[in-house]
Amino acid sequence: MQQRWRFLLAILAAGLAAGPAAHAQQTLEALSHDDRQWPMAPKDYANTRFSGLEQINTSNVGRLQLAWTFSVGRNRGQEAAPLVVDGILYVVGPYPNKVFALDAATGELKWRYEPRPNPSAQGVACCDVVNRGLAYDNGRIFLNTLDNHSVALDAGSGKELWHTKLGEISRGETITMAPLVVKGKVLVGNSGGEMGVRGWLTALDEETGKIAWRAYTTGPDKDVLIGDGFRPFYGKLKGKDLGVKTWPADHWKIGGGTVWGWISYDPALDLIYYGTANAGPWNADQRPGDNLWTTAIFARKPEDGSARWAVQLNPHDLYDYDEINENVLVELPIGGESRKVLIHPGRNGYMYVIDRASGEILSADAYDTVTSSKGVDLKTGAIIPNAEKETRVGKTVKDICPAAPGAKDWQPTAWSPRTGLLYVPHQHICMNWKSEEVGYIAGTPYVGAEVDMYAGPGGHAGEFMAWDPVKRVKAWAIEEQFPVWSGALVTGGDVAFYGTLDRWFKAVDARSGDVLWKFHSGSGLIGQPTTFVGGDGRQYVAIMAGVGGWPGALANSELDPRVRNGALGFTGAVQALPAYTVGGSELLVFALPQKAEQSNAGPQ
Amino acid sequence: MPGRSNRAAFAFAAFAAIAGPACGHAAEDMNADVLRVCADPNNLPFSNQAKQGFENRLADMMAAELGRGEVSYTWWAQRRGFIRNTLKAGDCDVVIGVPAKLEMVATTRAYYRSSYVFVTRADRHIDMASLADPRLKSLRIGVHLIGDDGANTPPATILGHEGIVDNVVGYTIYGDYREPNPPARLIQAVVDGDIDIAAAWGPLAGYFAGRSPVPLTVRLITDRADQPAYALQFDVAMGVRKQDKALRAQLDRAIARRQADIEALLKSYGVPLLPPLDGGSESAQGRR
Prior knowledge:
The complex is a heterodimer. By secondary structure, chain A is mainly beta. Chain A is built from six helices and 38 strands.
């Protein structure tokens, strides 16, 4: 009975909400809490990727069917999250970053936008020409192109409203991240740490595209937007111009620390949170010092970008452990009280729980095999290095876990307030490091590190698992042959979704981890699943299919799988991949069969 | 997007994009009348789109030896992904200059050997041939940076190992691609007095030193590596796909026939030459 009522309500609500202007006055925050919508890649400011929708639930997900599909026309890594606002679905492809608006229920194409980015951007992007998604606010769609432009489009027509150039591909910069809109500002960060880029986060005025502020990751306090209001929790991070002083002379100018991951926002504290990437392009030997503010988490005010606190997770990083991963904002019972925290699944293999008002690390537990460090020192906030696994020129170091992509890379987790579990798609790989590989770039021969990656203990290279941040243990885990490079989604129907490189889109019971349904898609999955209600009142689940990204370069770029250290070492961990998939470009949209859905509304 | 088509879109990249992804090219077509070369359009003295580099001239020479009527180019900036997006994508069949032991490809016999060198202004009278020279502690030293994880140019690596870091200035090898020959910025910094001394790969340094408005001194760095990571001298060969054995054999024979002409060509570009250590392509493959 209850089920039927919910179903009818959904139809009514969807009917009322029709029309693109319906939400002109509604705040983005309110829109993000409306489960018919998916207005930003992480669903909401807290980055939960949780939708309360329950038409599709554990009892009927086994009957999920393909409703419609659409090709974005370019067979490269498809990492973008499909957005839905008021029954219209918006999706962006990898370079050349075409944007499409479609009827979320029928798949009818409403408009398209073709930005024609500079083709040489492709030669600059390190690890496939991906785009992680669009953003929506106030009747506008916001897009980042690989060649460093932010673009605003009219959501109703696809007409371009403004575009602003933010960086230089000729200097190695690209943009791959999904923007986030906070209080009328579009927040965008750069990629390209391997190329000698200096990382930044930039805020643009949503109305005009004018740059409001830019916060650099390295350099003097005035560039990093560190001022009087900056109160880091840890003493080591207090001091003037640490973004200069923790580097040899001038090395910070090309020091990396790009911002290519996720941003979250707490409206109550009025703080945004994001992580910065690894240091570059200097070898570790040439950048003695902590190299601030690389591999750090920042809290800033959205109005002016001023920093409130920061914590560096991997001082003087040796292993390419970017900390650009998402920060999921939740309230947890800790030590008998309810604490406002952020959960950060670190590249370095630790699940951080951090007080998001102060920046104090409350706990940090290994969630995968970790040999590169011996834990996290909660007194200083820094990782405790393992001298045995220190990489040095001329030295061979075996069994470094996690490998360079970390225990988890960009692929975002999902949080269910119903189960209190974080759903974590991640890799399980280790590496051997040996400095004797001859390389050459721009006519310059050199001998660099040969990084050979392989599946970690147990022989599986990936895992989809549920983490209990209060008990600080894994609740359950599903082993996968390949790194799980797709995002996660969890719903009010207690179903969690994720995709695999070997083409399976899976629905699992969020409480038990039992696989309830799976679908063999046309290409490997590295996209972000989303869910929403179409104009017809039905719940849909969508994901882009198309292998690529760092691990998928093997399958879509014809690297030789016999070469274990192709694609910067990742080939070894995914050597069998071409036997399962080639590139793809398909948006897949699933729903329950109409009849089954209605019959299910009866007694269970 | 209005107003954006006139931005500095590099012709090379547009060309590469039109060429598109691999669409089942035969690994090699021995009957083709064209030698298909993968090259950087903006990297003298090696190659450029105006075909002024010594690798462009070598490509012409090889085409003639192989009885191919012409040379066609797939232009792509030589950075991470160059081999993957050109040679391995099947868009072209040979890279004219690669280190003789490059694992990603099959390499021909080496056709020259060169060294990293020091470049200084002649009027400074800094005559230096070793990275162990104590004067380096007080000079401002320029090096090229690559920045792939764990990889950098040997002088940068060695100086880091010696603890010489504060007076080292990094120039990314990628530079600013809007300017001609971005890696040349390191040599220009010596001319301009921004740095006292540059440690650079010989062919690049020799060529630009020869064209400098002020006299520059180029000295071979003579340190011998005690381990592979510190190697300063490299053999250079041509690279083809691993399965293209017939093409490699043809190129090997052509190189052997024209070795004297190749040497004369390289000298005319100011390339500092050492005798190749490794003449045979087969032995070069047997490293592991």
